[in-house]
Each structure stands twice: as structure tokens, then as C-alpha cells.
């Protein structure tokens, strides 16, 4: 209950501070390429309930509706401004709306895609599915896109077993460092967690 209260309070503060930046990013996306500024995506949340996740659009609207690693040339589908958004992780900012809605929290396992059955099954088998998914998590600061799915779940399970305010603060600090250095960001990866789907743009 306390974590939920702090999530909402922190979100309101951040949205108040970042609203000019969010507006600027939205305008640049619209100018940079054809299509909406935001896109929505089906993800799996707490207790395997499906929800709609929001991000800034970083790929062209004509991109085939498949996982990034299945595209012939992923880089050609990412917009010029989208490359910057992905590297800086600014494309994740609309997830503040998901936190306010209660779909997500700041720190927790990254939400799986609705069709990422192997990840969902592994998380369910060890109880990780009972956690509310986060914008960043223990697996994110220990490899992000460079980790295999089983490795991600191992880190998720470690978080489940050791979760505390101290660990959340540690992950938050590591996240800031990782974002500043763009550590673990990789396009065309075999890990489909960071996939965009043009079909669900809004």
C-alpha cells in the first residue's frame, strides 16, 4: 500500500515537471515521421492479467507487425528521432500513465509481451507473476536486452526474494547510470521484450 501511494505521488510530481518535455517529444515525433506520437502494446501484468502499455513511437507506421528481431533490417524501421529516444530511454516516459492507472510500478520485472509464452511460463512457475511489473527492474540493470530470457527470470526471482525499499533505491540509482551510458541497449536482439508493434499505434 505504501509503495502504491509513493508511486502515485512521485508520478504526479514527475508529470508536473516533465509535461513540457513530453509535449516537445510528441511534437518532434510528429514532425520527424508520419504517424501518432504514442503507441500502445498488449503486455502481461500482475497475476498474468493483460493490460495496455504506452510508449512514445520510435518506429515507422508501416513497420510489419512482428517482433523486432524478425525484421530483415530493424534499423531501417526506426525513425531518426526514434533512435535517440530508444538510446536515452525517453520512449518509456508515457509509462507514467500506466503507473497512475495501477498497471505498473517504478521498480519491478519488465512486463512481458502477451505472446511471449516462454517468459510468462517461467515467471509463473517461480511466482514472479505475482509482482506488479516495473518501468525498470533488477534484470534491466544487470544486462537489459543482452540477457537471455532464463537469465532475466533468475534476476526477477532474486528481486522477488529480496525486494525492499533499499533494493528499489539501489535499482533506481543503477537505472539512472545505465540510461546515461545507454548500457545494454541493442537493436535486432533475440529478446522480444523491447518490441514495438505498429498495428497498435494510437
What does this structure look like?
The structure is a single chain. This protein is mainly alpha-helical and 202 residues long. It contains seven helices and five strands, in the order αββαααββαβαα. The strands form two sheets. Strands 2-1-4 form a three-stranded antiparallel beta sheet. A hairpin with a 5-residue loop joins β1 and β2. α1 runs antiparallel to α4. It is globular.
| Main sheet attributes: strand count, strand direction, barrel closure | 3 strands, antiparallel
The number of helices is: 7
User: Beta fraction of the residues?
Assistant: 5-15%
How many beta-strand segments?
Answer: 5
Please, what is the oligomeric state? single chain
Radius of gyration based on Cα positions: 16 Å
End-to-end C-alpha gap: 32 Å
What is the average of the pLDDT values?
A: 85
Strand order across the largest sheet: 2-1-4
Architecture blueprint of SSEs:
Layout: H1 2-32, E1 38-44, E2 50-56, H2 74-77, H3 80-88, H4 95-101, E3 105-107, E4 112-113, H5 117-125, E5 134-136, H6 149-162, H7 165-181
List keywords for this structure.
mainly alpha; disordered C terminus; 7 helices; globular; 5 strands; single chain
How do you describe this structure in short?
This protein is mainly α and 202 residues long. The chain has helices at residues 2-32, 74-77, 80-88, 95-101, 117-125, 149-162, 165-181; strands at residues 38-44, 50-56, 105-107, 112-113, 134-136. It is 45% helix and 11% strand.
Amino acid at each position: 500500500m505504501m509503495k502504491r501511494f509513493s508511486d502515485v505521488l512521485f508520478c504526479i510530481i514527475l508529470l508536473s515537471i516533465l509535461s513540457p518535455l513530453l509535449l516537445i517529444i510528441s511534437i518532434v515525433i510528429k514532425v520527424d515521421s508520419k504517424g501518432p506520437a504514442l503507441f500502445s502494446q498488449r503486455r502481461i501484468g500482475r497475476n498474468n492479467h493483460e493490460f495496455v502499455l504506452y510508449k512514445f513511437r520510435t518506429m515507422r507506421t508501416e513497420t510489419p507487425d512482428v517482433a523486432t528481431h524478425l525484421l530483415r533490417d530493424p534499423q531501417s524501421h526506426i525513425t531518426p528521432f526514434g533512435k535517440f529516444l530508444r538510446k536515452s530511454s525517453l520512449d518509456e516516459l508515457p509509462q507514467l500513465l500506466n503507473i497512475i492507472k495501477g498497471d505498473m510500478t517504478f521498480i519491478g520485472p519488465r512486463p512481458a509481451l502477451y505472446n511471449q509464452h516462454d517468459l510468462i511460463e517461467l515467471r509463473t512457475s517461480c511466482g514472479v507473476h505475482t509482482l506488479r511489473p516495473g518501468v525498470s527492474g533488477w534484470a534491466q540493470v544487470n544486462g537489459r536486452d543482452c540477457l537471455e530470457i532464463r537469465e532475466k527470470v533468475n534476476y526477477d526471482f532474486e528481486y522477488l526474494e529480496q525486494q525492499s525499499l533499499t533494493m528499489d533505491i539501489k535499482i533506481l540509482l543503477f537505472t539512472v547510470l545505465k540510461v546515461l551510458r545507454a548500457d545494454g541497449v541493442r537493436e535486432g536482439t533475440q529478446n522480444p521484450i523491447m518490441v514495438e508493434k505498429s498495428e497498435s499505434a494510437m
